[in-house]
Design brief:
Number of strands: 6
Shape: globular
Distance between the termini: 5 Å
Strand content: over 45%
Strand order of the largest sheet: 2-1-5-6
Number of helices: 0
Oligomer: single chain
Helix content: under 10%
Length: 87
């Protein structure tokens, strides 16, 4: 709900404080990448998707995310899922 109230204004990656995202991408329903973040710490409130693409607020809809990171055993992990943008 990116509406400027400082609650859920960004789609963040949460996890162990020692973990670091290698790549975090968000795609719209047509497969266009609307966000990409690389090499950032989990739980960083200054990173993550703010619901815009090229400075334009994106519509309410379902979006797909893909997260690649290394776990505590240094194994490459990948999570995929969906998120709904609400305005």
């Amino acid at each position: 709900t990116p509406n400027g109230d400082f609650t859920n204004d960004r789609l963040l990656v949460h996890g162990q404080k020692t973990s670091k995202a290698l790549v975090f991408r968000v795609y719209d329903r047509w497969g266009e990448m609307v966000y990409e973040g690389k090499d950032f710490a989990f739980n960083d409130e200054n990173t993550g998707w703010d619901g815009t693409f090229k400075g334009v607020a994106q519509p309410r809809n379902g979006y797909i995310y893909i997260l690649s990171f290394k776990d505590s055993n240094d194994e490459l992990m990948e999570y995929k899922g969906t998120v709904t943008l609400i305005r």
